[in-house]
Each structure stands twice: as structure tokens, then as C-alpha cells.
Amino acid sequence: MKINRAIAFEKKNKSRNFKPSYFIDIGESIYPNKNNYKFEIAKTFKRKDKPKFELEIDYYYISGDSSVKVILYQWDKLTTKKANTFEDDKTKSTMFNNFQTKFTQLSDSLTKHLGEPIQKNIEQNITTDETFRDDLKWKGQNGLNAYRFMFGNNRNGYRQIRLAIYKD
Question: Cis omega (within 30 of 0) on the bond before 32?
Fold first, then answer.
């Protein structure tokens, strides 16, 4: 996919364009970059993933042929003007369930399209008050790869899901 096609897609979906003024690297643990691509400043977009999330999408591309090599998705809790600064246990529990449902939906969809994950690490069930990271990796037969992970901390109520899609 070329970056112009990605931009057109995001405009069609009424995404807001964010223009970082500096390069934000993508870690090798997320994208191994075996071909040592030199990326331009990623094109970043945000939109609501109704009704519960804000979705940020980063398109990492190379300048030579404008081809997108990595798409990084990030789901965060949708903040509203009515959001309370202090959440009660019921609100936190609902938010945790929303993230777990999204996490599971993404995993099921990726497994359907790419096959069973080649790597799986689930920490949330063994960690109590510390930050955890649940992650799964897929390697599709057509060269398409995915790495999906969720950060969380039950004590402070933090959750975030990320998904990197790339082709070797």
C-alpha cells in the first residue's frame, strides 16, 4: 500500500491528521525491520472507535516509493467531557471488560486470517498490582505478520491495546 492510499482511507473515515514534528522510532520488538528501511516521519491519524475507544493509527513508510511497511494501531480509553477524574470500581471493571473484549476480538480476527499465533504471553492473570503486558504474534503464510499486545495495571486502571501489521 502507498501512503497516499492510506491518507485517502483515513480522510474517508473522518480521521484527524496529526503531524509529529519529529521522528518516532518503532522498536525492533514490535517490527524487526530485517531490511533496514529508513522511515519517514510516520503519518498519524486519530478517530473514535465508538463507543468506547480512541484509535490512533501510525503509517510507517519509506520515501523512495512511498510504500507503507508498518501500520501501528493504538486503542486508548475514549475520554469524554463527562468523564470523572476518579473512577469507581464498577466503572473500572466495565472499562477493563471493554478492553478485554476488544483484545479478544482482535485476536480472533487475526487468528481467522493468519492462523494460530506463533507466540503467546499472557501476564494479566499472574500479576496483581504491577503493570502487565499480554502479547501474541502471528506469522501468516502470505508474509503478513501481526503483533498485538495490551498493557494494563489494575491498581491505577490503565489499559492500552496496540497492534502492528507488517509484511516481510
Answer: no
Range of the domain at 8: 3-167
How far apart CA 143 and CA 166 sit, in angstroms, is 8
Concatenate the DSSP letters of all residues of 91-142 into one string: HHHHHHHHHHHHHHHHHHHHHHHH-S-SEEE--TTT-SSS-EEEEEEEE-TT
- pTM listed for this prediction: 0.90
Q: How many domains is the chain partitioned into structurally? A: 1
Residue tagged 487475526 (cell numbers) = 110
Q: Which residues contact 153 (CB under 8 A, 6 or more apart)?
A: 129, 130, 131, 132
Per the structure block, which three cell numbers stand in for 100? 478485554
First-to-last alpha carbon distance for the chain, in angstroms, is 13
Cell of 149: 499486545
Q: Which residues contact residue 134 at a Cβ distance below 8 angstroms, ignoring those fewer than 6 apart? A: 103, 121, 122, 123, 124, 149, 150, 152
pLDDT tens, position by position, 20-69: 778 888 999 999 999 999 999 999 999 999 888 999 999 999 988 999 99
Contact 156, 146 (CB under 8 A): no
Q: Give the span between the Cα atoms of 154 and 164, in whole angstroms.
A: 24
